[in-house]
Amino acid sequence: MKVNGTHYRSLWWDTDKNALQIIDQRWLPHDFRVQQIDTLTEFADAIIEMRVRGAPLIGATAAYAMALAMRLDPSDSAMDKAWEYFNATRPTAINLRWALNRCRDLLRPIPTEARASAALALAHEMADEDVEINRMIGVHGLEIIREIAARKPEGEPVRLLTHCNAGWLATVDWGTATSPMYHAHDAGLPIHVWVDETRPRNQGALTSWELGCHGIDHQYITDNAGGHLMQHGQVDMVITGTDRTTRRGDVCNKIGTYLKALAARDNNVPFYVALPSSTIDWTVDDGVAEIPIEERGQEEITHVQGRLVDGRIGTVQVTPDGTAGGNPAFDVTPNRLVTGLITERGVCEASTQGLAAMFPDRAEADAA
Question: Which portions of this protein are annotated as coiled-coil regions (predicted)?
């Protein structure tokens, strides 16, 4: 997508510097900073510290991390060590393990002297694939928005509500939940997006920044406002992303998503989840019982970062001294609350049967 009229991906390979460039998302929406990643430690820190964030983008970053690992040492032992090192960086988003497995499976039978170039080629391929997958999610999601728009008075916008940031910043480009929004806007459909602030890291501010760059009408709201808006008929559709989806269609997303799904069900508002198939964990059935939930540092709760009155970016404490903060980063929305899953192959029911019918090749291979 574009920043100040210039197209950017959330990460890209600089051939002149022979290194990966990322948008350091810790400073957005107030400051646009690009960082070059040169070491394995920097790759790990970028993932852990959420300089890169979002399940698809974490997966793409991990592929480039493996490419660097193979450049430094292409041995089997180094490959396995790198797999373990990066797999431990964040526990919830399944794309991380998916990407690392794909790299290791490709590289294992290749002679060591060819691994570095093969790993880099695969990372480029995976990044390009992610762009196309998310574009197709937008194509399929657009049809849902078209159907809603056709039932509304002429000129009245389709009002969408989203939680967290599942935009192009969370992927290589387009985003998951935002891709249908971009497609609808570009197709001339009037839309208005309610953007949850998404505490504790206020990732809704990233969504607002993205939508503003693209000229999409939106408002930034508190996390607790969604139910009120639904009660008063001001939400036509909820659409979120997901960091891990079980084979029966439970979705694990940023903390607070479950509450939005409950409010949507109570008010007969359709609740859709946009996801690439790489986010499906075919080995897990019951998301609440089986998905590990990342517990992040309490400082994300007790402090908040923003632009100070003098224009500087700073951090302030919002809690009394000595107050502990609890910070589970994700929750699980059971499939019964999900209207449908928007994937790169189309829209399906959030169920074992729905996902297996949409991805028969993946369901059989990955569950084995």
Answer: none
Give the residue numbers of the binding site for substrate. Answer: 53-55, 90, 203, 253-254
Q: Which residues are annotated as a binding site?
A: 53-55, 90, 203, 253-254
What are the tens digits of pLDDT across the range 108-162? 999 999 999 999 999 999 999 999 999 999 999 999 999 999 999 998 999 999 9
Q: Where are the beta strands (DSSP E) in 181-285?
A: 191-196, 218-221, 237-240, 244-246, 251-254, 271-274, 280-281
Whose structure tokens read 């309490």?
Answer: 298
End-to-end CA distance of the chain: 38
Which residue is catalytic, options 130, 236, 243, 250? 243
- pTM confidence score: 0.94
Q: What are the backbone angles phi and psi of residue 6, rounded to the nearest 5°?
A: -105, 135
Return d(Cα 292, Cα 354) in angstroms, integer. 24
| Residue 170 contacts residue 54 (beta carbons within 8 Å) | yes
How far are the Cα atoms of 27, 59, 103 from residue 94, in angstroms, in the given order? 25, 8, 14
Quick check: helix, strand or coil at residue 271?
strand
Which among 160, 66, 151 has a CA at the least distance from the CA of 116?
66
- Positive or negative CA dihedral for 344, 93, 17, 75? negative
* Residue-level length of the chain: 368
For each of the domains in the chain, give its residue range(s) and CATH number, in order of start. Answer: 2-129 (1.20.120.420), 139-367 (3.40.50.10470)
Per-residue pLDDT reduced to its tens digit, 227-258: 999 999 999 999 999 999 999 999 999 999 99
